[in-house]
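Title: [Solved] Response regulator transcription factor 3D structure

Original question kept below for reference.
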Amino acid sequence: MHVRVVLADDHELVRTGIGALLGAIDGVEVVAEAEDGGALLKLVEGLLPDVVISDLSMPGVDGYAAIAEIHARHPHVKIIALSMHDTAEAVKRAVHSGACGYLRKDAQPFELAHAIRSVVTKGNYFSPAIAQALLAPAEPSAEEELTGRQVEILRLLARGLASKQIAYQLGLSSKTVDVHRARIMARLGVNNLSALTRYALRKGLIAA
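Solution (posted by the thread starter after getting help):
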């Protein structure tokens, strides 16, 4: 079995480590590496690998969007999502995007090899813990809990922008932004920016 892999992660140290582990697996060849989703899409288009291993949190085109695009264009390419998070929402979102496997970044080397062989021969790979996350009841999405404008403002707040900056960017008054912020906090039952940021991370509104 010869498996050609394209690896994507925005952290060079992570790519180097995982690339070395992949290179030690008999029959596996890392043919290219990408540091963001846009580069990943171009590499897959040109190389048509057997397997893509992609981080979910990347700048620009994030892993979810890249996975969805690859799956739509090349459904035969097996995609393994890579993340430090294994919440039910993250796993389900990755699978819905087109991933047929899911690995935590701190997975043991033997699991990486097993995942690649499983997606190639069986079509999917999910560890018992990840499979349990897939079966867990789904949490409501941010879009179900908040209005579109509130989601937009929450995303910017979680990125560290002040009310004046958000107001300027969205063409609103600072007072309007503050009102939305208060309503968001009341709706979610939180009372500080740290809690809002954790919520945004959990819901995938910002990258980790």
